[in-house]
Amino acid sequence: MKSQTGNSCGKLAGFTLVELLAALLVLSLLALMSYRGLGAVLDAREHVRSESDKWRHVATFLARFERDVQLASPRPMRTATGILPAWLGRPATTEEPRLEFSRFASIEGVDSARRLAYRLNGNQEIELWLWPGVDVAPDAQPSRYPVLTGVSQMELQYLNADLVWADVWPGSAQDAAIPLALRLKIVLASSEEIVRIFALKS
Predict the structure, then answer these.
(1) Domain boundaries, position 100
(2) pLDDT under 50: residue ranges of the chain
(3) Number of structural domains found in the chain
(4) Is the CB of residue 158 less than 8 Å from the CB of residue 169?
(5) N or C: the chain end with fewer CB closer than 10 Å?
(6) What are phi and psi of 96, to 5 degrees?
(7) Is the full-model pTM beyond 0.90?
(8) Chain-centre distance for alpha carbon 52
């Protein structure tokens, strides 16, 4: 009787091979589920970070663009070949900057009055062109800086005295030095469209 009881206790204390394999299978499934869950969390966090960075850059660009156009000056630009209008909005077909204008010094006084321009280049970047002043010497070239990347399209329109939106500026000899307002539309490479209207101090 004692030997039988001892053998029975020994059998209850161990695990069969089938039980071990089943336990390993369950643990493997739990580990796989945990790995996939962690991967989904990391992917979501990376997506949120990327989206946050994108919209922060867009907001920074719009703030700079608004500040520049709000400081637009009615002063024409003198060059070696002639005089350019104070505000020059070119058609989309040109390779030159879409928008070029004279600008007062900033209110903070951190820079001087100068000529600047915005252009969408072939690398899906909006470039800022900066000349050293309002009047340009014959050999003066603008400095170029990308201010927003990942842009597939940029459209500009200008509000004239008849409250009509025009694609170029000046559209006629009667147009003022600066339009009443500017409408900016940009389409990001990720397909989002952003439209902003800026009232100008013409």
Answers:
(1) 63-199
(2) 1-3, 8-10
(3) 1
(4) yes
(5) N
(6) -80, 170
(7) no
(8) 11
